[in-house]
Amino acid sequence: MEQDPRGRDRYQADWGLAWGLWAPASGSWVLARMLCLGQAAGMDGVSTGVKGQDARPALTFLGGAGTVTGSKFLVEARGVRVLLDCGLFQGARELRRRNWEPFPLPAREIDAVVLTHAHLDHCGYLPALVRQGFAGQVFATGYTAELAEIVLRDSAKLLAEEAEQANSYGWSKHHPALPLYTEDDVDRAVRQISPVDPGQVTIIAPHTALTLHHAGHILGSAWARLELTGGHRSCTLACSGDLGRPAHPLLRPPDPFTGADVLLVESTYGNREHADDQARQAFAEAITRTLERGGSVIIPAFAVDRTEVILRTLRELRQAGQIPLSPVLIDSPMALAALGVYQKAIAAHSSELRSEIVADGTEALDPGWMQELRTAAESMTANRPARPSLIVSASGMATGGRVLHHLRHLLPDRRNTVLIVGFAAEGTRVRDLAEGARTIKIHGEYVPVRAEIIQADAFSAHADADDVLSWLAGAPEPAATYVVHGEASAAAALRDRLDHELGWTAAVPALGERVTIRARELRHRALPRWCAGRADRPTGPGGSAGTAGSRGESPGACPPEDDARPGPARASAARPARSQRGAAPPPTAQPVVPWAGRCSTTVSEDGMNTLS
Ligand SMILES: [Zn+2]
Q: Is the whole model's pTM more than 0.90, yes or no?
């Protein structure tokens, strides 16, 4: 049956109707916002500001601000709109509801999308954007393109299953509940992805060049650097995406940050440090203890990368005799598909991988007694394993997927253990478990929690606060640094450390906030002579990608301006910390409200800038 092209689900049946029915108490701002959005849809240049050649470059935080999910950063410059990441909101219901809000400008007005990596909170909204009319190109590394297709197809399947279950069990107030997007939308989205090589300068839109750099977070992950040319002065914007850890067991450390006028840096672990040795020890001891008492271990794991890291760790622990031999059940078709991509990268000797992994070959990720559970019937065997086993199953935060069935069956038994090995976002079941919940709700029922719960989040693929500071410390200070992709306390902690330890002006943006972009003062600029005029920099035709050659290899490809500078380690002594300098000026520009156009600003109950 043809679905409503705007999408409906268990939360929301129809935009116009649902906004009216769903939040009637929210009052006039809802209606006013709808009117403004209506204007935006019909009037070019109203939605996020002036889409003109003369408008100042601007950045709008459409997601990944105040939360670790939903990453979407809109960059507008000289009439071009680029969306950095296109992630799905996950976790608490209030956040997930945002996936159903109309995109704040007509999707067809986005010229290009850049994906930093294939995790759902960075790419999972892409089919919804395509469904709403986005027809431009999507730029990502080749491995991200492969993994994103796997992740998006799984996401569409999960959304369909949730809608089906909601209809069966009557969870939804919408009849029928429909998914946010379908496999057809995913088909169209993946066709729009154009792989680009890390380190290559690629013209992704007029006046807009992209370079992706290895980020070491998951296979294919990158931090992105945009160069916005033309107008008064070129400026650069870098986005860390999710930054990997130098200690990642499979991937080599991230390429160093070389500087930009504006920086968006993630802060998932902005207030924490990983304790690798203790976490590995806790992981091994929990497995041994559980198997010895006849229980099984459930490891909710992100299908991409975390599963591979767990398999590698199990292999090493077994080789060292630190854990007994037992079946390792990989219960996720998505995880198995992603594992295939990692195996392929190992076979291809990918430069993203550590040399010892490449040297081990495809056995690098073999724990010794692995069983692949692909079908639903095979998955059900893990609900009551024939012998004590290790069950690795998605999703990582137990927000959906097969792991819910295993938790439902295994949590009530004291012999079992749940090992939490990744970030546990607010509002998710693993967060509830980590915080000691005695019951959790699964499929509409409360399940008693009697199993042991162990948190070993050093297995996270995210840099911790020290890692982020080290990554930044050798670069010149941006004109503005925005701390994103973190819960409030983590983002604030990282902002303070940037201030006190590097002396950088940093701000934590609000969801929906818009700021203007400017180039910083270009002290020490020392571009190569052949690059000084930039007249020979290739520029591609509008909307089509043109690879400008490997950085530094071709006279036609200017290195990013900061790369050409001497890169002295930046000591905090080079510039006094804010506390020593007195009150610092506000970050780069005044916050303004997105979608404003002719509308004035108010702040809604949830603190998000809205319209009236
Ligand atoms: Zn990620």
A: no
